Amino acid sequence: MSRFLSKNYEKLVPYTPGEQVNVKVIKLNTNESPFPPSPKVKEVLSEEVIDKLNLYSDPELKELRSAIAEQFGVTPDMVFCGNGSDDVLAFAIMGFCGAGGKLCCPEISYGFYPVYADIFGVELEQIPLKDDFSIDANNYIGKNKNIVIANPNAPTGLTLTFDEVEKIVASNPDNLVIMDEAYMAFCGESCMELVKKYDNLLVTRTFSKSHSLAGLRVGFGIGSKEIIDDLNKLKYSFNPYNLNTLSIKAAAAAIADNEYYDDKIAKIVVTREKTISQLRESGFVCTDSKANFIFASSNKITACDLAAELRKKGILVRYFNKAKIDNYLRITVGTDEEMQTLINAIKEITEA
Amino acid sequence: MSRFLSKNYEKLVPYTPGEQVNVKVIKLNTNESPFPPSPKVKEVLSEEVIDKLNLYSDPELKELRSAIAEQFGVTPDMVFCGNGSDDVLAFAIMGFCGAGGKLCCPEISYGFYPVYADIFGVELEQIPLKDDFSIDANNYIGKNKNIVIANPNAPTGLTLTFDEVEKIVASNPDNLVIMDEAYMAFCGESCMELVKKYDNLLVTRTFSKSHSLAGLRVGFGIGSKEIIDDLNKLKYSFNPYNLNTLSIKAAAAAIADNEYYDDKIAKIVVTREKTISQLRESGFVCTDSKANFIFASSNKITACDLAAELRKKGILVRYFNKAKIDNYLRITVGTDEEMQTLINAIKEITEA
To answer: Between the CA atoms of A308, A108, A292 and A305, what dihedral angle is there, to the nearest 10 degrees?
Structure first.
């Protein structure tokens, strides 16, 4: 630490992203899609577009916000775009919960929520899950605090129903409810249409998982015009040109290509279900994940050891050294071939 | 405003970026380069790279930090990269001056500094310029506050000498001095080598001006390893993957192509000097700008009227409705042809 850092940040513990590697491995540790982005992305990143990079990107992001709005049947002024959905979550927690505000989230969830609470001085309550790792919606009814919930939740993949989400939103009218739908495309029940009915709901999404664009860094939030105006006020006070021209064009092209992504998402869901069955047959306990990852625990080997053994075989999975989930692995759903290699590797390890 | 925004941000007045337009105009209002980026940028943004966007970008930005470090003769751990230099400045002011810290800057300077102070709760002192718009270095000697100075300054284009900067840095050993060198490539005296001698100096740069990549959103700061570690701590608590893969690769390729950019920068400097001479011959007062813009005031027409008249002719320049500079225009240096069109338009307007 330098001598100059504010005392507020002395004890800040940053988020630890999953490992990024260059060597040839089967990478099932950071919930990326195993498929390349839509071919439309290559088309729009033309030489003409690159030659115009001397000009600033559009700070209003009109092209992208319109494309997103069209997909979800809302108006562009209900869409806020960020440099990844982390950027959207950061602005939302800074703006609506910052400096002494109150926020609650599930105790086991996206590891970034407590980090945001820490950096922005938010009083965070982490609410335990049920024993089966599911979220008890009743814990959030009439909570009278701001709420952030990942749905499907990470790393469990478990979901709240549409009705449960509506009860949470409706019963906390004076607080903001952030539903983080990063993994929603893989067949949960989205609450997106509730943004038209409730002014205290912000639904966030990302291009990183379902749209094969983790390396592009684009996420978005949809909510009432007033909430989006507030987020833009913060953005224009922090980094007005927060998306570059290539991200804007590529993401706008991607989100319009439903045919391509519907096919890829369907493949991932089929592979997920097949892999969960195989793991259960091999003595694993798996949650009913509705995300592009599997949350699994073996009855033959500890999660920590299994992750280490898989790593020796060139397969990366995510192990969290954290109470209550330290005997589970989060395994991204790759291609059918990759998952078969994983299953074979696990058999070799557990039968050795 | 929504009902949910923290009281802290109720009165926040965001930064106003220069207008971005789609129609065909001569755009001399946001200090973009008139030249396309290096051809090397197109080469590295290959189809193979785009097809791999399903994978996360490198949060450590190793490729880009190494390329920048090599250019400036420092080690990569002395380089922090941001999503534009606004991102670097935001993290620096948040981390080193935030929550009650003290900061000073020139009264006439980059309009974002007071916005950062506002959003991060910093006590800001804005120090007047001399009557000729130059910065009096003596005002910053032994100041005992954090300091941010744009060198060359904006919108004046005037510079501090290397010796003046060193005196400021050396006389404030217990405070951070941020030298914002966004426009330094256009022939000022950089203080970059002082980062090896002083641990309280952070020098920021951008790819937006000299490197024709405003639309790519890449900036960086160079300072002691401890300062860079602190900035990374904040980044990993806010948005770990803050640059996308395309930005990393394109910026790394660009900064290595000295031959291309030296030529373009030299052209801009020649055009700047020629245009300043022509304006002075036409009765304008111009500062001795060392940036890629001209700061000019006519004795025949108010700046506000001139900007409006130029706009009618399809030429955009930047007018600041702000005390002390409201009779000056900031005019980006475009190509020789664009500047000749500007000069001709000004003659038509002022002789009409």
So the answer is: 10
Residues 84-143 of A with CB under 8 A from B: 84, 86-87, 90, 95-99, 101, 115-116, 118-119
Q: Give yes or no: residues A177 and A112 share one domain.
A: yes
On whether any CB of chain A is under 8 Å from the CB of B217, the answer is yes
Does residue B1 form part of some domain?
A: no
pTM of the model: 0.95
Look up the CATH number of the domain holding residue B170.
3.40.640.10
More confident of the two residues A351 and B263: B263
B15 touches chain A (CB under 8 A): yes
What are the mean pLDDT values of chain B's consecutive 10-residue runs (352 residues total)? Answer: 77 78 84 97 97 96 98 98 96 87 96 93 96 98 97 98 98 96 94 97 98 98 96 93 98 98 98 98 97 97 97 95 95 98 96 82
Rounded Cα distance between B92 and B88, Å, is 6
Residue type, A56: Y
Residue B205 and residue B67 share a domain: yes
- Tokens 């300091």, residue located: B147
Q: How far is CA A349 from the centre of its chain?
A: 31
Q: Same domain for A243 and A111? A: yes
The DSSP result for B211-256, as a single string, is: TS-GGG--EEEE--HHHHHHHHHHHTTT-SS-S-HHHHHHHHHHHH
By DSSP bridging, strand B123-127 and strand B102-106 are: parallel
- Residues A264, A252 share a domain: no
Segments forming the whole domain that contains residue B31: 7-36+259-351
Tally of structural domains, chain A:
2
Minimum CA–CA partner of B237 in chain A: A14
**Chain A residues whose beta carbon lies within 8 Å of the beta carbon of residue B50:** 36-37, 41-42, 45, 250
The pLDDT of residue A228: 97
Residues A248 and A314 in one domain: no
Contact present, B224 and B173 (Cβ < 8 Å): no
Q: Are residues A276 and A133 in the same domain?
A: no
Contact A228, A221 (CB under 8 A): yes
Q: Residue A266's domain is classified under what CATH number?
A: 3.90.1150.10
Residues B157 and B275 placed together within one structural domain of the fold? no
Q: Cα separations (Å) of B247 from A33, A59, A348, B250, B264?
A: 21, 17, 41, 5, 21
Angle of helix B303-312 versus helix B336-351 axis, rounded to 10: 110
Kindly write down the DSSP assignment for every residue of B189-205, as one continuous string: ---GGGGGT-TTEEEEE
Task: At B47, list the tokens.
Answer: 């189809």
Residue A2 belongs to a domain: no
